[in-house]
Design a protein that fits this description.
Distance between the termini: 87 Å
Low-confidence stretches: 191-197
Structural class: alpha+beta
Strand order of the largest sheet: 5-7-6
Order of helices and strands: EEHEEHHHEHHEE
Radius of gyration: 30 Å
């Protein structure tokens, strides 16, 4: 038996597979609770514990049945009365146990550098040269953490794509190789007043 994260002695994935096959041999590859016979796919049937206790797994399989997903939901409804706080997932359980990758760590350093440089250049000049922006972020991210390689230009270009996507006030001018801000809409002109009557 494998221990699940909530501390119960439950079946491991391999044991569930074996129990599923054993139950299918015993009762057939069908939903035990379905009255109509039909052809079932393996992915449509769930190993169900008759007494509702996932720790009760006798070797003879007397506590197991195969149930389709709708019947399994009926047998184990998730209503207010059935809520069990001791079995509820905690926020800590939802966090990934996989450590952050090196690229994720570099991005954590580089994104603020990108934002700071971009805002400074837009405030001063109203445009940002893409090559200068890439060079600055790559160079500074490496300077902040010398043991890392710094971010790549492709990463900075991804930041730029995110910046100009959708209803962004910025666009890329290919000729100037720069990011510019769309001009503000001009005030309506009174030149047409005499023409339209």
């Amino acid at each position: 038996m494998a221990k699940k994260r909530n501390g119960l002695n439950c079946l491991s994935d391999a044991e569930v597979e074996h129990a599923w096959n054993q139950t299918a041999e015993r009762f057939g590859k069908k939903c035990f609770y379905h009255k109509v016979s039909k052809r079932w796919k393996k992915s449509e049937l769930i190993l169900h514990h008759v007494d509702g206790d996932p720790e009760n797994n006798p070797k003879d399989g007397s506590n197991w049945r195969l149930a389709c997903r709708p019947h399994h939901r009926q047998l184990h409804p998730r209503t207010e009365g059935r809520f069990n706080p001791s079995r509820a997932l905690r926020i800590e359980d939802l966090r990934t146990s996989r450590p952050a990758t090196e690229e994720m760590r570099r991005n954590k350093l580089a994104k603020p550098l990108f934002t700071e440089y971009f805002n400074t250049m837009m405030d001063e000049f109203g445009a940002v040269n893409i090559d200068d922006l890439c060079g600055y972020v790559c160079r500074e991210s490496q300077a902040v953490d010398p043991k890392n390689m710094g971010v790549t230009s492709a990463t900075v270009e991804r930041y730029i794509d995110d910046l100009v996507r959708g209803k962004s006030p910025y666009y890329i001018d290919e000729e100037k190789n720069a990011i510019l801000k769309y001009p503000l809409k001009a005030e309506p002109s009174n030149q047409l007043d005499g023409i339209i009557e």
